[in-house]
Write a structure and sequence with these properties.
With 507 residues, this protein is α/β, with parallel strands linked by helices. It has 2 domains: 55-266 and 471-488, Aldehyde Dehydrogenase, Chain A, domain 1, CATH 3.40.605.10; 270-459, 3-Layer(aba) Sandwich (Aldehyde Dehydrogenase, Chain A, domain 2), CATH 3.40.309.10. Helices cover 35% and strands 22% of the residues. It has 13 helices and 24 strands. It has helices spanning 54-71, 76-92, 94-105, 109-129, 168-179, 193-209, 224-232, 245-257, 280-292, 312-323, 344-359, 409-416, 432-439, and strands at 18-20, 22-24, 27-29, 34-39, 44-50, 136-138, 145-153, 156-160, 183-187, 217-220, 238-242, 261-265, 270-274, 302-308, 363-366, 381-384, 400-406, 421-422, 424-428, 448-451, 463-464, 467-468, 475-476, 485-493. Strands 3-2-10-9-8-11-12 form a 7-stranded mixed sheet, sandwiched between helices. The protein has a 7-stranded mixed sheet with strand order 15-16-17-14-13-19-20, with helices on both faces. α3 crosses α4, α3 (94-105) packs antiparallel against α6 and α4 runs parallel beside α5. The longest helix is centred in the N-terminal third of the chain and has 21 residues, at 109-129. The chain is globular and about 90 Å long. The chain starts with 17 loop residues before the first strand and ends in a 14-residue tail after the last strand. The active site is at 265. Belongs to the aldehyde dehydrogenase family. It catalyses: an aldehyde + NAD(+) + H2O = a carboxylate + NADH + 2 H(+).
Length: 507
């Protein structure tokens, strides 16, 4: 049995009808259950992957622990050169990998290609970083002593990623972890195993070409059992987890019990505030992009729209008009703006969510229904609802936008900050005093605080992540690299000064 004709491009990235799902000690294997990967646009099986068993996991971690001793001694700029080669390998397969992301996850093709481009950009960023892992010299209060900070690798970094960004989140973590001198253990999302295999093959090829141990990058397809093994494993000092707040809390508790470190990227419940002086056209375009993009399955998706009462109806009317023009369909076809939800369960959750919204006084302005088809398509939906409704505090992972009214900036900030999550936020205004209040200590309590741009579309140069139930982790740019290393404060007595000890004769 071969791949279906429309999936022929997958041969170019090393995939077949059945694939081994573990890259362990430089060898492909898999002795766990066989999982099928489905196309969310029609729920047809694309290909199969043999998942990891606990035995595969143990073998992988033993080899990875040995490889860590080698990799951390490779000079950082040479580690950067390996990451540069990974970036070049990705460039060579950008369109095939982007197409696979779109096919298996369900996001539209420009977003699929954009996701792979993000890893390429992370590789470039990390190459530069490999020559800038600088410590610092600190003045010592003692004569003839020097004090400095050294940054050393942790050893192994565990990366557990989610379906909505099945490879970009790996890039945010792995590129930096590798140049910092760590080996990487990756568990991709159970519903996107083909992307996990294809990405790993590309990284494995670079390691092989450079005669480096394959175990530097160890990869598993699998479910919760493998995720729990990573969380419990004392050989993994840092676990980076992306997913729901509920599961993230469980991962954090497990990792904390062994005094490990956690980097959490959890739920978002992001608001856009539109003030009375805002550029309405800019705001409407931005809201559409932020609320409908990736079928509402980004952690940075705009879920709440806060409109000043004086422009409320004007913005809502324009938004309803553009929502009705959204093309829903096959994410691989040109012109499609809204692809399917990722699984049939996601579609059922959308239906349940709409019922809860109605029961809590929400009024459906447009959308609100599933699209009758073989795939997991739903209508982009706008709901008028009170900011106090309980459902507004939760994250419904679908293209559902809650619209609410406010009178003052103070009220808008209070509504923005009233949810458990604290990832991204944005305000549309032209007034400097509002901008600086918004980004200041009494403004938005999120990790990403934007002005006149949407809540999504973060750049890799800044640290990405959020507060409260979003988990507090930071990935990608700025000084996020410090999480992947351990800091040593070193004091050196270069003058051989004797410590003072009055009344004691040392001979």
């Amino acid at each position: 049995m071969g791949l279906a004709k429309e999936y022929g491009f997958m041969n170019e990235i090393g995939l077949g009808p059945r694939n081994l799902g573990c890259y362990v000690n430089g060898v492909w294997k898999g002795s766990g259950p066989v999982a099928s990967s489905s196309n969310p646009a029609n729920n047809q099986i694309i290909a199969e992957v043999v998942e990891a068993s606990t035995q595969d996991y143990e073998e992988g971690l033993e080899a990875c622990s040995e490889a860590a001793k080698v990799w951390m001694q490779v000079p950082a700029p040479k580690r950067g050169e390996i990451v540069r080669q990974i970036g070049d390998a990705l460039r060579g397969k950008l369109h095939q990998l982007g197409r696979l992301v779109s096919l298996e996850m369900g996001k539209i093709l420009p977003e699929g290609i954009g996701e792979v481009q993000e890893i390429i950009d992370m590789c470039d960023f990390s190459v530069g970083l490999s020559r800038q892992l600088n410590g610092s010299i600190i003045p010592s209060e003692r004569p003839n002593h020097a004090m400095m900070e050294m940054w050393n690798p942790l050893g192994i970094v565990g990366v557990i990623t989610a379906f909505n960004f099945p490879c970009a989140v790996l890039g945010w973590n792995a590129c930096i972890a590798l140049v910092c001198g760590n080996c990487v253990v990756w568990k991709g999302a159970p519903t996107t195993p083909l992307i996990t295999v294809a990405m790993t093959k590309l990284v494995a090829g670079v390691l092989e070409k450079n005669n480096l141990p394959g175990a530097i990058f160890t990869s598993f397809c699998g479910g919760a059992e493998i995720g729990q093994a990573i969380a419990k494993d004392r050989r993994i000092p840092l676990v980076s987890f992306t997913g729901s707040s509920k599961v993230g809390l469980m991962v954090q508790q497990t990792v904390n019990e062994r005094y490990g470190k956690c980097l959490l990227e959890l739920s978002g419940n992001n608001a856009i505030v539109v003030m009375d002086d805002a550029d309405i056209q800019l705001a409407v375009r931005s809201v559409l992009f932020a609320a409908v993009g990736t079928a509402g399955q980004r952690c940075t998706t705009c879920r709440r729209l806060l409109l000043h009462e004086s422009i409320y109806q004007k913005v809502l009317d324009q938004l309803v008009d553009v929502y009705k023009q959204v093309t829903i369909g096959n994410p691989l076809e040109k012109g499609t703006l809204l692809g399917p939800l990722h699984t049939s369960d996601s579609r059922k959750n959308f239906e349940k969510g709409i019922e809860i919204i109605k029961s809590q006084g929400g009024k459906i302005v447009t959308g609100g229904s599933v699209v009758e088809s073989e795939g997991n398509f739903v209508q982009p939906t706008i709901v008028e609802i009170s900011a106090n409704a309980n459902v507004v505090k939760e994250e419904l992972f679908a293209p559902v936008l809650y619209v609410m009214k406010f009178q003052t900036l103070k009220e808008a900030i209070e509504i923005n900050n009233s949810v458990p999550q604290g990832l991204s936020s944005s305000i549309f205004t032209r007034r400097p005093e509002i901008i600086f209040k918004w980004i200041g200590p009494q403004g938005s309590d999120c990790g990403i605080v934007n002005v006149n741009i949407p809540t999504n579309g973060a750049e890799i140069g800044g640290a990405f992540g959020g507060e409260k139930a979003t988990g507090g982790g930071r990935e990608a740019g700025s000084d996020s690299w410090k999480q992947y290393m351990r800091r040593s404060t070193c004091t050196i007595n270069y003058g051989n000064e004797l410590p003072l000890a009055q009344g004691i004769n040392f001979g």
